[in-house]
Amino acid sequence: MMHDIIIIGAGPAGMTAAIYGRRASKTVLMIEAKSYGGQIINTPDIENYPVAPHISGFDFAMKVFEQATALGAETVFEKAVKITPHDGIFTVTTNKADHDGKTVIIATGSENRKLGLPDEDRLVGRGVSYCATCDGAFFRSKTVAVVGGGNTALEDALYLSELAKTVYLIHRRDEFRGAEATAEQLRGRENVKFVLNSTVTALHAEKRLKSITVKNKNGDETELEVNGLFVAVGRIPENQNFAEVAELDGAGYVIAGEDCRTNTPGIFAAGDNRVKEVRQLVTAASDGAAAATEAVKYLNSNR
Ligand code: NAP
């Protein structure tokens, strides 16, 4: 079956694109590898989206998915691995099937960057976490460390300081990339200990994480006993599978402007995986609207 618009990724950008596509009477297939909603489902309380002063990320995702589905968007839960242009259309290959579309919107978002330490993968769920709001409650009155110096790390440390006995904030520089106001709040918390100019170089565990080795810029190593390590060192856009049809910048983001057009006519990029300044829920939704509007223009001019 031929679809007018295939959307890869059913996060806020992809689902908004589906709403706009359906409202323009185009057929829409969303291909989602995990669960709809994307990374916003890990946010317990969204406070910065217009009209909804407080809503959980999970509820937000469910409402948008219901809205897109009620308008007639279809969804398959498969992992898209390739886009092949041929005969003026695109075949999106997944781990299960091939889907044909006249246009494609890549709205794959991003995944957690890892530290790349031995045993890091094995210890996920056994002390290592990439999501403080998901897993923080398991560390009530325990000792945890957060690695990173961006807004995620600072906000994670603040959140964990409400629960944990002690929070080490480990950052490779002595200046934070994240908001100074949050850093200032952290300085006022007695149970937050700053470990600056330092990186984590080893994880030590039996069944669960027990301690970490931290190395400072002079090369001195210290072992810190921790029950949990929250890794918040940024995210990596999930575009590599599509690099042949959508040109990427050095950091792996799709090069596309506000109109979301990639270098391949008929293929668009929307959301956190696109080159942009502000990666927020509202800008992801905005990209979805722009990408679908451009896809509809493309469809109407190529009839
Ligand atoms: P980020 O801003 O890219 O920060 C990543 C941090 O991890 C940086 O401090 C970086 O250090 C450090 N880092 C990177 N690789 C590392 C490694 N291998 N080992 C040790 N440290 C490493 O990522 P983010 O905090 O996830 O934020 C992503 C985006 O979302 C940002 O635009 C952020 O502002 C936004 N955000 C906004 C809010 C909000 O508005 N409330 C909340 C969360 C996130 P360097 O600083 O030395 O490079």
Structure overview:
By secondary structure, this protein is α/β, with parallel strands linked by helices. The protein has 2 domains: 2-112 and 235-301, FAD/NAD(P)-binding domain, CATH 3.50.50.60; 128-231, FAD/NAD(P)-binding domain (3-Layer(bba) Sandwich), CATH 3.50.50. 23% of the residues lie in helices and 28% in strands. It contains 6 helices and 17 strands. The protein has helices spanning 12-23, 57-70, 132-135, 151-161, 180-187, 281-301; strands spanning 2-8, 28-31, 74-76, 80-86, 89-94, 98-106, 110-112, 128-129, 143-147, 166-170, 192-195, 198-205, 209-216, 221-225, 228-231, 235-237, 267-269. Strands 1, 2, 3, 4, 5, 6 and 17 form a 7-stranded mixed β-sheet that branches. Helix 1 packs parallel to helix 2 (57-70), helix 1 (12-23) runs parallel beside helix 6 (281-301) and helix 4 runs parallel beside helix 5. It is elongated and about 65 Å long.
Topology summary:
Blueprint: E1 2-8, H1 12-23, E2 28-31, H2 57-70, E3 74-76, E4 80-86, E5 89-94, E6 98-106, E7 110-112, E8 128-129, H3 132-135, E9 143-147, H4 151-161, E10 166-170, H5 180-187, E11 192-195, E12 198-205, E13 209-216, E14 221-225, E15 228-231, E16 235-237, E17 267-269, H6 281-301
Parallel strand pairs: 1-2, 1-6, 2-3, 6-17, 8-15, 9-10, 9-15, 10-11
Antiparallel strand pairs: 4-5, 5-6, 7-16, 12-13, 13-14
Helix pairs in contact: 1-2, 1-6, 4-5
The structure holds NADP nicotinamide-adenine-dinucleotide phosphate.
NADP nicotinamide-adenine-dinucleotide phosphate binds at residues 113, 115, 147-153, 155, 172-173, 177, 199, 232-235, 279.
